[in-house]
What does this fold into?
Amino acid sequence: MKDFGREILAWYEIHGRDLPWRKTTDPYKIWLSEIILQQTRIKQGLSYYHNFTEKYPDVSSLARAPEEEVLKCWQGLGYYTRARNLHHTARIIANDQQYTFPDNYKDLLNLKGIGEYTAAAIASIAFDEPRAVVDGNVIRVLSRIFGIKKSFDKPEGKKIFISKANDLISKKEPGKFNQAIMDFGSIYCVPANPDCNHCIFKNDCYAFRNDQVDKLPVRSPKIKIRKRYFHYLVFNWNDPEQKTLLKKRNERDIWMNLYDFPLIETENTMKWKDLITHPEFKKLTKGLIFNLRQSSPLYKHQLTHQQIHARFFMLDITALPNRKNYHKTKKSDISKYPVSRMIEKFLQDYP
DNA sequence: AAAACGGGGGA
DNA sequence: TCCCCAGTTTT
It folds into this structure.
């Protein structure tokens, strides 16, 4: 290959996407876009980017916002740690550094939520630092064209990919180069059935020449999925005058800092008859007179590493208990709280 | 070094 | 269904 950088940049000039964060050099907006796009498709993240930039046009406005409001804006995007870190980091930048934004790879790397990829992306795009990004797209493009068979998950493979990308990067237009190779990977060198016969690299591509396109990149063995069984207690759902109880999820677990209902988690699904004998259930309903009005079908919610089986039990009770860490809430106010997609689905099904 | 962390969409 | 997505943090 003569000059990979020149070729990919030429391709990018013609085929590169027109995206809102490419019209700005504001590091805050570049940062925001990169966080939103972590493990997230552009199509899915686009509306969130617009909402955020409108509501929080700069670091200080984001820093001033309450965390709960930021989480609410993030609702539905997943990986909620991203939102908490984004907000946390905005406060650090706004407070400690007199509103200046870290302007190089090393300093960016120190911030919460910014790892190797994002630091390289911001440094190259906003500050022209020649620092190659390596994401899923880059891994695919490099492994195929240059025949890299090491898995990126292993330290050895990771070093190879990062070093190769840094060898190739344009020193003159590092940001453009990075976006070019990612665009090429996501538009052209796609995971399944890429159109290799018309590819600009067909004569040089190792995978194409050796019929290895569907073998590269090498995938790591897939993880096993934990099954969990949630039983939610939804108090006074059918009585508009009465409030219900919400709980903020605090433990180190999925959906941290989002809200859901009082929850009994077990190793298996439990019928109502058995659930009422569960110690957690007794604790939650201690001193209450309750009546099961309705129970939902089983909700199956698939996460990357977990499969949640959830059932909602709608209970009538005479008086709402005072429980530590539980919030009394009017039904109509629940929409103000950030919730997981699963809870959102339940709220739609049982308005 | 490995596990945890969401949700959507394409094939 | 399976795979992948502009990855990072915690254990």
User: Anything to note?
Assistant: DSSP finds 15 helices and eight strands in chain A. The domain at 226-349 of chain A is CATH 3.90.79.10 (Nucleoside Triphosphate Pyrophosphohydrolase). Chain A has two domains: 4-209, 226-349. Chain A has a mean pLDDT of 93.
